[in-house]
């Protein structure tokens, strides 16, 4: 852990550099909030609502920077004070098995990270989100969600981690087998999550017979998009923000609508939102993204297999010899710059898909009017930042800014 170790220098520069890049992005984004209300939103945003959306964006940005700064400071302090060396010694003193050491050590780091983020998540939920009228979560629901998430993480993650530790500790070409194991898990979760995991957090109720249900099935028929079931999710239990999504494959597709979305939108707007989601499927976006994620996993595991036990990488964290389970941690830190680049490329691709899905929705609903109205209402109800800085969009946005989506819809006419 000295300056003559190139791994140490690269890691230190990358973690601090990424944080500074985020700070610059946030500061520019906050400064960009000084712009006036865009003309496209004058019919849904009054002066007070626009001011609230700007204040919400500012407060969320400040919270984001403080949370990231604290996490970075704690990480650097732990690293430079020899925390990883101490942790490895403590874990190896408790457990003899290399796989057991890995499961214990990685679990401790995960729980520590969760506890570190907990005060910031609590403040965001019960202070910022509550202040602007979004939060409906009670402390008991918040804590229950946390416990369920940790339990599910242990139930699913620990067996997978055990397999990965065994593979990388046993086979020279373990990256290929690790990629196959995780890919199979990802594909299984595509089916299991909406049916068995998500209902642990929300109640899925079949949509009652009526005009909306008939209109949804009519839309799916016109789009040649078979839908088996339509559900309503009790999203209002946690937030006033709305959402909708599809799950399932083939002829077993399911539609899930948040009750908040149904409450705040007209039927034509709801159909436009659903047509947008159908557009993602009809244009092949879902399959494309899944295929790319599988390829990305292959690249990640290939790189992991190359550097996982490199002595220089482990020496950068103060270890005299490689420790397999800590190699997983060190690789995740080393990979962050590449992950950022991959996220930027993914964001560019995702924003292109959103334009295509908007265009599909306009075609499926007889024009862009309903999709335009839905986007405006979504922006108002969620107090969206209508004037994000281009750098923030470039780094983080999976959807184009609302004003650009409206301009693209307007061009369809």
Give keywords.
single chain; 413 residues; mainly alpha; 4-stranded mixed β-sheet; globular
Question: Topology, pairings included?
Answer:
Layout: H1 6-32, H2 47-80, H3 83-94, H4 98-131, H5 139-170, H6 174-197, E1 204-206, H7 211-222, E2 229-233, E3 244-247, E4 254-258, H8 259-264, H9 267-282, H10 285-307, H11 311-315, H12 324-334, H13 336-364, H14 369-381, H15 390-396, H16 402-412
Helix pairs in contact: 1-2, 1-15, 2-4, 3-4, 4-5, 4-12, 5-6, 6-10, 7-9, 9-13, 9-14, 13-16, 14-16
TL;DR of this structure?
The protein has about 425 residues and is mainly alpha-helical.
Q: Can you walk through the features of this model?
A:
This protein is mainly α. The protein has 16 helices and 4 strands. It has helices spanning 6-32, 47-80, 83-94, 98-131, 139-170, 174-197, 211-222, 259-264, 267-282, 285-307, 311-315, 324-334, 336-364, 369-381, 390-396, 402-412, and strands spanning 204-206, 229-233, 244-247, 254-258. Strand 3 (244-247) and strand 4 (254-258) form a beta hairpin. It is globular and about 65 Å long. The model has no long low-confidence stretch (mean pLDDT 93).
């Amino acid at each position: 852990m000295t300056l003559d170790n190139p791994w140490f220098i690269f890691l230190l520069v990358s973690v601090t550099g990424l944080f500074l890049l985020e700070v610059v992005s946030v500061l520019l984004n906050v400064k960009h909030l000084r712009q006036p209300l865009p003309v496209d939103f004058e019919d849904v945003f009054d002066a007070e609502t626009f001011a609230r959306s700007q204040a919400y964006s500012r407060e969320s940005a400040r919270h984001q920077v403080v949370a990231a700064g604290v996490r970075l400071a704690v990480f650097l302090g732990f690293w430079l004070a020899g925390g990883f060396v101490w942790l490895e010694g403590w874990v190896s003193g408790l457990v003899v098995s290399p796989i057991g050491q890995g499961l214990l050590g990685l679990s401790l780091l995960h729980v520590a990270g969760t506890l570190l983020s907990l005060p910031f998540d609590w403040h965001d939920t019960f202070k910022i989100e509550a202040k602007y009228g979004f939060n409906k979560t009670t402390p008991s629901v918040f804590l229950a969600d946390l416990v369920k998430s940790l339990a599910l993480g242990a139930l699913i993650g620990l067996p997978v981690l055990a397999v990965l530790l065994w593979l990388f500790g046993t086979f020279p070409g373990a990256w290929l087998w690790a990629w196959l194991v995780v890919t199979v898990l990802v594909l299984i979760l595509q089916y299991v999550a909406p049916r068995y995991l998500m209902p642990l957090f929300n109640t899925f109720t079949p949509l009652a017979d009526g005009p909306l249900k008939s209109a949804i099935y009519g839309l799916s028929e016109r789009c040649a998009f078979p839908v088996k079931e339509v559900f309503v999710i009790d999203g209002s239990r946690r937030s006033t923000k709305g959402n909708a999504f599809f799950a399932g494959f083939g002829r077993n597709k399911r539609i899930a609508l948040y009750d908040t979305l149904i409450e705040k939108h007209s039927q034509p707007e709801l159909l436009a939102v659903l047509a947008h989601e159908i557009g993602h499927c009809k244009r092949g976006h879902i399959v494309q993204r899944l295929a790319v994620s599988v390829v990305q996993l292959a690249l990640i595991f290939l790189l992991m297999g190359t550097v996982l036990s490199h002595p220089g990488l482990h020496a950068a964290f103060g270890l005299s010899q490689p420790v397999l389970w800590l190699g997983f941690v060190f690789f995740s830190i080393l990979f962050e710059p590449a992950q950022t680049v991959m996220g930027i490329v993914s964001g560019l691709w995702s924003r292109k898909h959103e334009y295509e899905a908007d265009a599909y929705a306009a075609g499926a609903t007889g024009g862009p009017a309903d999709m335009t109205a839905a986007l405006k209402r979504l922006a108002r109800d969620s107090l969206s930042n209508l004037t994000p800085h281009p750098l923030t969009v470039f780094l983080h946005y999976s959807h184009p800014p609302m004003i650009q989506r409206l301009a693209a819809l307007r061009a369809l006419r």
